[in-house]
C-alpha cells in the first residue's frame, strides 16, 4: 500500500483564503484591520527569508504587517521596550518574536513580556497553562496546523493511539495537549524512550518532531497509520542542499495510510495558522465572534 499524501501546501492555501475572507468582512463591517508584528533580532539568513515570507502572506490576507529588524547586539532592555510599545499599540493584534534569540537574551523572559492576548505563537506561560487545562488560549501554530490536518483526514480522533516523538515546548508538548483534547490516547516519546521503535509501531497517529533528519524509518510505522512529519532539516546529499523531515519518507510512505511531505506539509500550515491566530486575536480583542474552523 502507498500512503495518501496530505498536501499541507494546498491545505494552507485554503486556510489563508478563509482568513482573507474573514479579514475582508471585518474591514467592511467593523472598519478593523488585523495587524501582525514580527520581531527579528540578528541577521540569520534563514530567519530573514522566513520572516519575509510571513510578511508577504500577512499582506496577501489583507492584514497589516509590521516588521521590526533589530541588530544582533540589541540589549534585553531595548527588546523589552519594543515589546511594551507593541503591547500598547491598538493596531497590533499579534506579536511574534522570532526564535531562537541571540544567546545574551533570555527568551523565556522576552516571550513572557508579550501580552498573552497578542501572543500568536502561544508560547507565553499563561497560554501554555490555559491550553494544558483545556481553556481558551492562543495555540502554538505548528501543533494547530497538525491538528487541522489530522481532523480533516480522520474526522474524529477519539480513541486513537497518538505517539508524539519529541518533547519541546514549541511542538511536542502542545501537540500532545491538543491530541489529548481530541480524546486520543497520547504517548510522548523522546531520545531516552526505551524501545522507541516498538512505541512508534503502536501509533495510529505518529507525529515526528525531533529535528533529526530521517530518523524514523518505515519499519517503525504501523501499517495504515497517519504520519505527521514536523521536521524541517537542511542536509547536503550528492553535493546538493536538500530539505528532509524527521521521517524517512520513501520507506514510511510504503507502510503509512497517510503522510505529510517535507517540504509542503507542516511548514506551510504553520504560517497559515499564524495568520489564523492573528485574526482570532483581533476578534477576541474587539469582542467579536471568532472565525469558525480556525481555532482549536
Ligand atoms: N517565534 C517563532 N515562531 C515560529 O513559528 C518559528 C520561529 N519562531 N522560528 C523558526 C521556526 C521555523 N518555522 C517555519 C515555518 C514554516 C516553514 C515552511 O513554510 N517551510 C516550507 C519550506 C521552506 C523552505 O524551503 O525552506 C515547507 O516546509 O514546505 C519553515 C519553518 C517557524 N518557526
From TrEMBL:
Residues 140-284 form the Tetrahydrofolate dehydrogenase/cyclohydrolase NAD(P)-binding domain. GO terms for cellular component: cytosol. Its EC number is 1.5.1.5, 3.5.4.9. It comes from the Bacteria. Residues 6-121 form the Tetrahydrofolate dehydrogenase/cyclohydrolase catalytic domain. Keywords: Amino-acid biosynthesis, Histidine biosynthesis, Hydrolase, Methionine biosynthesis, Multifunctional enzyme, NADP, One-carbon metabolism, Oxidoreductase, Purine biosynthesis. It holds the Pfam family THF_DHG_CYH_C. InterPro entries: Aminoacid_DH-like_N_sf, NAD(P)-bd_dom_sf, THF_DH/CycHdrlase, THF_DH/CycHdrlase_cat_dom, THF_DH/CycHdrlase_CS, THF_DH/CycHdrlase_NAD-bd_dom. GO terms for biological process: L-histidine biosynthetic process; methionine biosynthetic process; purine nucleotide biosynthetic process; tetrahydrofolate interconversion. NADP(+) binds at residues 166-168, 232. It catalyses: (6R)-5,10-methylene-5,6,7,8-tetrahydrofolate + NADP(+) = (6R)-5,10-methenyltetrahydrofolate + NADPH; (6R)-5,10-methenyltetrahydrofolate + H2O = (6R)-10-formyltetrahydrofolate + H(+). The keyword Oxidoreductase applies. One of its GO terms (molecular function) is methylenetetrahydrofolate dehydrogenase (NADP+) activity. HAMAP family: THF_DHG_CYH (MF_01576). Homodimer. Catalyzes the oxidation of 5,10-methylenetetrahydrofolate to 5,10-methenyltetrahydrofolate and then the hydrolysis of 5,10-methenyltetrahydrofolate to 10-formyltetrahydrofolate. This is Bifunctional protein FolD. It comes from Neotabrizicola shimadae.
Amino acid at each position: 500500500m502507498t500512503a495518501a499524501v496530505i498536501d499541507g501546501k494546498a491545505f494552507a492555501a485554503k486556510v489563508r483564503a478563509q482568513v482573507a475572507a474573514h479579514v475582508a468582512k471585518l474591514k467592511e463591517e467593523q472598519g478593523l484591520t488585523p495587524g501582525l508584528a514580527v520581531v527579528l533580532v540578528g541577521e540569520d539568513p534563514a530567519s530573514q527569508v522566513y520572516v519575509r515570507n510571513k510578511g508577504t502572506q500577512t499582506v496577501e490576507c489583507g492584514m497589516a504587517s509590521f516588521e521590526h529588524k533589530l541588530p544582533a547586539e540589541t540589549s534585553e532592555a531595548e527588546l523589552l521596550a519594543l515589546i511594551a510599545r507593541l503591547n500598547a499599540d491598538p493596531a497590533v493584534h499579534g506579536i511574534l518574536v522570532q526564535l531562537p534569540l541571540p544567546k545574551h537574551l533570555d527568551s523565556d523572559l522576552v516571550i513572557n513580556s508579550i501580552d498573552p492576548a497578542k501572543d500568536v505563537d502561544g508560547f507565553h506561560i499563561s497560554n501554555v497553562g490555559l491550553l494544558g487545562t483545556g481553556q481558551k488560549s492562543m495555540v502554538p501554530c505548528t501543533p494547530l496546523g497538525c491538528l487541522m490536518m489530522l481532523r480533516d483526514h480522520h474526522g474524529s480522533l477519539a480513541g486513537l493511539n497518538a505517539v508524539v516523538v519529541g518533547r519541546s515546548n514549541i511542538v511536542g508538548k502542545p501537540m500532545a495537549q491538543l491530541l489529548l483534547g481530541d480524546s486520543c490516547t497520547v504517548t510522548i516519546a523522546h531520545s531516552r524512550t526505551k524501545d522507541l521503535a516498538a512505541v512508534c509501531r503502536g501509533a495510529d497517529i505518529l507525529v515526528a518532531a525531533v529535528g533529526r533528519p530521517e530518523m524514523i524509518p518505515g519499519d517503525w510505522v504501523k501499517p495504515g497509520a497517519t504520519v505527521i512529519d514536523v521536521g524541517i532539516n537542511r542536509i547536503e546529499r550528492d553535493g546538493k542542499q536538500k530539505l528532509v523531515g524527521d521521517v524517512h519518507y520513501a520507506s514510511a510512505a510504503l507502510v503509512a495510510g497517510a503522510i505529510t511531505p517535507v517540504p509542503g506539509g507542516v511548514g506551510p500550515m504553520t504560517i497559515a495558522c499564524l495568520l489564523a491566530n492573528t485574526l482570532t486575536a483581533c476578534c477576541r480583542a474587539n469582542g467579536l465572534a471568532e472565525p469558525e474552523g480556525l481555532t482549536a
